[in-house]
What we know:
This protein is an all-alpha fold. The protein contains twelve helices and no strands. It starts with a helix and ends with a helix.
Amino acid sequence: xxxxxxxxxxxxxxxxxxxxxxxxxxxxxxxxxxxxxxxxxxxxxxxxxxxxxxxxxxxxxxxxxxxxxxxxxxxxxxxxxxxxxxxxxxxxxxxxxxxxxxxxxxxxxxxxxxxxxxxxxxxxxxxxxxxxxxxxxxxxxxxxxxxxxxxxxxxxxxxxxxxxxxxxxxxxxxxxxxxxxxxxxxxxxxxxxxxxxxxxxxxxxxxxxxxxxxxxxxxxxxxxxxxxxxxxxxxxxxxxxxxxxxxxxxxxxxxxxxxxxxxxxx
Length: 266
């Protein structure tokens, strides 16, 4: 009986203590921001050390614990950056596009869009394990082409403009060469209208690809086989007049010589 009484008294005295225990102290905004920055900087250290697994986990922690801070947004970008550095370009593109969609007015949007371009460009690069680019599905290259153009239109003064110009030149050349590849395919099967259409499309859609002389010579050759000498001569002469330093001046002159001999024999 005595032990029961002691236990009851103990619980009676303990109850107020438990009931009066102070709740965890809420952080004020300044402390919250400082803690978020500290956690982000810790993740950033792992990022700079290329410890991708640790960095990813720490950035995810920042996003979970400090979702109302700017550092959560930056953590989103860094996770996409990690995917990019690991050459997981599909994941990187998804991350960067998600950032642009979720925070359209953020100051880092130009960076995120640039990295989308860079990811698409890297993703569309040649690989020894794949067939030549002109024989491949070029959906990614087309997307890179349109994305670069859109970026340069929206941010003409961006500090990566020179690099973006180079990337645009490369993907434009790839797309133009693909059209010429298809044009030659049609020419080899005597489908002359289709060959002409492909040459003209390359010249019209991918100006400044650097392949204009080649496209014009191929177009002139096709006109010759179609027995359209006037069209052939006009196109071939334009190669000599507009691109006198091009190696394609030689085949242009050869085709013109063939035209001259045909006219003399008639």
